[in-house]
Amino acid sequence: MNLRLTISCIALFAAGFAQSALAGDGNDQGANGQGANGTSYIATITDSNGNFASRGVITLHSDHTMSVIDSAQGGPQFFFSSQLGAWHVGGNGVVTGRTIDFDFPNADIARLDYTIHFGANGSATGTITLTAFPLHANPLDGGGTVVGTFTFTAYSIAP
């Protein structure tokens, strides 16, 4: 086999591997066939009384990690880090996710539990439950103090 053919075969294999790794397995579908796989959503978040709380971007990565940024994280009322966590699709097509962030200057930790329902045209709605823990506590082991329940409406961000 000549060197040029060998390099071409390796490049073709690598391109196919990269495409399948980035695309995921294609089975991460929400309700109504809407994809959750590798999608970011711009969200409007409201508190339990229906009042505007913030805007955010929720990203459901194809490797089932999840990241969230929020317009309120830099103050002036609250100071907290971006959120990192994981998500999965339930049997009913509803995505559940869990993220962790750190709060300042109190130096505590928060767990945010998400439920996401997909609609038509790249829309999504859901709930967020915010639970606070002392910094030394395990936020994955139950307990904590629920400090807020929020709802959101969101739309996928497309190029």
Secondary structural class: mainly beta
CATH architecture heading: Beta Barrel
Count of separate structural domains: 1
CATH class: Mainly Beta
Name the average pLDDT.
81
In the CATH hierarchy, the third-tier topology is known as Lipocalin
Total strand segments: 9
Radius of gyration: 19 Å
Can you tell me the residue ranges where pLDDT is under 50 for at least 5 consecutive residues? 1-34
What is the number of helical segments per DSSP (H or I, 4+ residues)? 1
**Helical content (DSSP H or I, runs of 4+):** 10-25%
First and last CA, distance: 42 Å
The largest sheet, given as strand count, sense and whether it forms a barrel, is:
8 strands, antiparallel, barrel
Q: Biggest sheet: strands side by side, in what order?
A: 1-2-3-5-6-7-8-9
Percent range for β-strand residues: over 45%
Order of helices and strands: HEEEEEEEEE
Shape: globular
Keywords for this entry:
single chain, 159 residues, mainly beta, Lipocalin, eight-stranded antiparallel barrel, 1 helix, 9 strands, 13% helix, globular, disordered N terminus
Q: How do you describe this structure in short?
A:
The chain has 159 residues and is mainly β.
Description:
This protein is mostly beta strands. It has one helix at 3-23; strands spanning 39-46, 52-60, 65-70, 79-80, 83-89, 95-104, 108-118, 123-134, 145-156. The protein has one domain (27-156): Lipocalin (Beta Barrel). It is built from 1 helix and 9 strands, in the order αβββββββββ. It has an 8-stranded antiparallel beta barrel with strand order 1-2-3-5-6-7-8-9. A hairpin with a 5-residue loop joins β1 and β2. The longest helix is centred in the first third of the chain and has 21 residues, at 3-23. The radius of gyration is 19 Å and the shape is globular. The protein starts with a helix and ends with a strand. Mean pLDDT is 81; it is low at 1-34.
